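Sample intake sheet
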Amino acid sequence: MTMNNGYAAYQNSKIMTASPAELTLMLYEGAIKFCNIAIMGIEENNIQKAHTNIVKVENIIEEFQATLNHKYPVAKDFENVYRYLQERLVEANMKKDKEILEEVLVHLRTMRDTWKEVMKLAHSK
């Protein structure tokens, strides 16, 4: 088994054994990572790199939207935030605008950090 295959197997195992809360955290981490890579793509004037990674962030946000549990009133608030982020990502992709991506990144980090706190609170109960 090569190093890449070993790492891929480890990552796959990590995903397959993760709780729903851990999977959500992994998605936030992935969105942050891809947003950072998209910013680097813009800085390097690598349009394809920027585009590909913005689309990856959009796909993660779409997954969040698709899995919202609308039986809770707060889901509407999350839906609005996710819709806003999608609109900003589309605009950033069209304009290859680093500042818009930096704004999205701030929101993603805040949401990730909040999610971590929710996980801690749930775990301590």
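Comment: The chain has a mean pLDDT of 92. Residues 19-124 form a domain with the Four Helix Bundle (Hemerythrin (Met), subunit A) fold (CATH 1.20.120.340).
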